[in-house]
Structure formats: structure tokens, C-alpha cells
Write a structure and sequence with these properties.
It is built from 9 helices and 27 strands. By secondary structure, the chain is an alpha/beta fold. A hairpin with a 4-residue loop joins strand 7 and strand 8. Helix 1 packs parallel to helix 8. GO terms for molecular function: oxidoreductase activity. It comes from Methylomonas lenta. Keywords: FAD, Flavoprotein.
């Protein structure tokens, strides 16, 4: 007799796990999925091309509704299907409209929420996050009648939103508290290259300041006040200041939570029948925001659910391959280094290429590539395998060279 698996969360993490599980053990479970959005599972990473008109929602679907039917998955999707309670004693999941599903095993994949900063006056129309297809549809609608967009946050998401709205014809200003863009992925010099490139496309920047007040007229945003007291016209404010794990349900259920829902190496929560993966979890003190570790968690979780008891998750070195508005970036490891590190830097202002390698004891511990990332896989292999580069150190920064075995 089949066991009952219920999945809370119809996003990339949960459905990747279900997809992997079906390939490993298709007959083991009757699967029920609850999702808050009225769609199948789509590729959230591809929201930006939808924003600027290169793709539609159907183009970025990973699993359309027919996929659930083909695989005999019961899908409950839409706002009224949001799970509001889990009865761990009787092993039942209850949604907002009263739908009930019993489980033998439960997988929580509730993802994350946009970090909406508590700025005075923010509770008006036109202030929003950039997290799902509904946000994108709102941005597109605003761009058709409004002119001024302000983005709070100079990280990857903020720059993608800025690019999308600029391509929709809006005048865009990015406000970033840090002194340079992508400060978690780039050093000051690489960020300078990026800023100049984006300014040449028409995006304006205010760095080293933040927003202290939202000013509205008729309950709609019209201006923002910056921390240096200047005012910016703003018909829309997109907060792209980061994400926070969505752990409300986990906490209400009484699962162990800190920053995320705490999981062990088998991706089990403090209740051994309940698994959790993705941006809602905390594993060995770490929370997650990139797709590579989330997909790795989905694979391990599927193996666990299929009965492969030895499958265990471990955090791997995460390299960031970014494609911001058509500009190639690569960042990995400790790209600043300490007093015991040496740096190699290559700068070509004409070609717009920047390359920085940080070495410690003749091993690469971090790297940034801007403008040309074609050799990134070779460098990443050296880093992941802790390869001593003494023999090729003087040519290291220019191009890949095969090391003698």
C-alpha cells in the first residue's frame, strides 16, 4: 500500500524533489501538493525576462498543470489553498479553505519572503517586492502609465528589476546603502566597471544612502526621501533588499527554528516524519538563496524519501555565475583575502575586462571575473580541488594552462 506524501510549497525546491522522487520510486507515494500561487511550478530565476518582455509565464513553466495530472499528483493551488495549520498528532494538513490532506511523510518547501524594510509611509500602493509572477505583473502594469521607478537594493535582484523597468521605458534610480554594487559578490573595482556599464544604459545610482520615508498622494507613492534628505520622484518603489526564510508555518507547528527551519544532514526537521528543503531551511547554521544548493537538497531529500537512508546533504562551495543585464560576472570564495594572501589583478578598460585572483600558499581561495567569464569552469576546478598552482603561477591570470600530472 502506498504511503501518503504531502508537499507544502509548489515552487522550485519542492517540485524538484518530487520530480527526482518520481524517477527514483514512482510507486512509493500518493503525492499531494499545496501551493499559494494559481499556477504550476515556474522558474523564478526567469522572472526578469518576463518583466522586460522577452518571455511569457508559459515560457518559464517547469511543470505545467498537465505534468501533475500525468504523474497522478493532487495539486491544490491558489491563495485559498495556502496551508494554515498542520496537526502533527493526527498527521493532517489544513488549508485556508478547509481542504484537509493526511500524510505519512511531509515535505515543507515554503521558500522565502522579500525583506520589506520598515520605512515610514510604506503602506501605500506602488511599494512592493520582486518575488513572484504577481509582482512582475504589477510592475508591468505600472510601467505602462508611470514614469519614475526607484529600486532599493543594489544586489542581483535589484539590478535585474532596474534593468527590466528601464527596458519598459521607466526612468530608474537604484538606491544602495553600501558604497558599491553587488557588495557580496564583487570588490570595489569590479563593481565600478558594472556601475559604469549600467549607467551607460541609462540607470542612475545613489550609493551610500538609504530610504527613510515614502511620501504619497491619494494613497499612492509619489516620492521617497533619502537619508541625506534629498527627494526622488517615485511612482513605484521596489524593495530588493534581500530575502528571509518563510518559517511562520514551521514555528506554528512547533518545529525547531532559528533563522530557518532547522534540518539535519538527511534534511529532516525536529519531527522525523517531516522534511524541509530550500530557502526556508537552516542547515548547520547556514541559510540558502541560490538555486544550486537548493537543487542539491531536493536531490538528497528525494533519495531519503525513496528509502536511500545513507543519502546526506553537505554544503558545497557556491560559485556565483551572474548575468546582470547581459553582463557576465563570476565570483567565488574569499575575493578580498587577508594579510596572508596575495592578489593577481588584470584590468583592461578598453575591453571592459577585470580579473582578480586571491592566492594563499599557492592555492586559489577566491576569484572575480568581470566582462569575460569564458574560462571560469577551469578556475573553479582549481579552487574546488585545492590545486597547488606554483608551476603556472606567473601565467595564471591570463588563460587556462594544463598542469603536468
Amino acid at each position: 500500500m502506498k504511503q501518503k506524501l504531502v508537499v507544502i510549497g509548489n515552487g522550485m525546491a519542492g517540485m524538484r524533489a518530487v520530480d527526482e522522487l518520481i524517477q527514483l520510486a514512482a510507486e512509493k507515494y500518493d503525492i499531494t501538493v499545496f501551493g499559494s500561487e494559481p499556477h504550476g511550478n515556474y522558474n523564478r530565476i526567469m522572472l526578469t525576462p518576463v518583466l522586460f518582455g522577452a518571455k511569457s509565464l508559459s515560457d518559464i513553466m517547469i511543470h505545467d498543470l498537465a505534468w501533475y495530472q500525468r504523474n497522478n499528483i493532487s495539486l491544490h493551488c491558489g491563495a485559498d489553498k495556502t496551508v494554515v495549520a498542520v496537526d502533527r498528532v493526527n498527521r493532517r494538513v489544513i488549508s485556508q479553505d478547509g481542504t484537509v490532506a493526511e500524510y505519512d511523510k511531509l515535505l515543507i518547501a515554503t521558500g522565502s519572503l522579500p525583506l520589506m524594510l520598515d520605512i515610514r509611509g510604506r503602506e501605500v500602493e506602488g511599494v512592493m517586492g520582486f518575488r513572484d509572477i504577481a509582482d512582475v505583473e504589477t510592475m508591468i502594469e505600472k510601467s505602462q502609465t508611470k514614469q519614475h521607478a526607484v529600486i532599493l537594493g543594489g544586489g542581483l535582484l535589484g539590478l535585474e528589476a532596474a534593468n527590466g523597468l528601464m527596458q519598459r521605458g521607466m526612468q530608474v534610480t537604484v538606491v544602495n546603502r553600501a558604497g558599491h554594487l553587488l557588495n557580496r559578490q564583487l570588490d570595489v573595482q569590479a563593481a565600478g566597471f558594472l556601475k559604469r556599464e549600467l549607467e551607460s544604459k541609462g540607470i542612475e545610482f545613489r550609493l551610500g544612502v538609504t530610504i527613510t520615508e515614502v511620501i504619497s498622494a491619494n494613497q499612492h507613492i509619489c516620492k521617497v526621501r533619502l537619508s541625506d534628505n534629498t527627494l526622488l520622484e517615485a511612482d513605484i518603489l521596489v524593495m530588493a533588499t534581500g530575502i528571509q526564510p518563510n518559517i511562520r508555518l514551521g514555528m506554528e507547528m512547533g518545529l525547531a527554528c532559528e533563522h530557518g527551519i532547522i534540518v539535519n544532514d538527511h534534511l529532516q526537521t525536529s519531527d522525523h516524519r517531516i522534511y524541509a528543503i530550500g530557502e526556508c531551511v537552516q542547515h548547520r547554521g547556514e541559510v540558502f538563496g541560490l538555486v544550486a544548493p537548493v537543487y542539491e537538497q531536493a536531490k538528497i531529500c528525494a533519495q531519503q524519501l525513496a528509502g536511500q537512508a545513507s543519502a546526506a546533504y553537505q554544503t558545497l562551495l557556491a560559485a556565483t555565475m551572474l548575468k546582470v543585464t547581459g553582463i557576465d560576472l563570476f565570483s567565488v570564495g574569499d575575493f578580498e583575502g587577508d594579510a596572508d594572501c596575495q592578489q593577481q589583478v588584470l584590468v583592461d578598460h578598453v575591453l571592459g575586462v577585470y580579473r582578480k585572483i586571491v592566492l594563499k600558499n599557492n592555492i586559489i581561495v577566491g576569484m572575480i571575473m568581470y566582462g569575460d567569464t569564458s574560462d571560469s569552469a577551469w578556475y573553479l576546478r582549481l579552487i574546488k580541488n585545492n590545486i597547488n598552482v606554483t608551476a603556472i603561477r606567473d601565467k595564471l591570470i591570463f588563460q587556462p594552462i594544463e598542469l603536468a600530472a
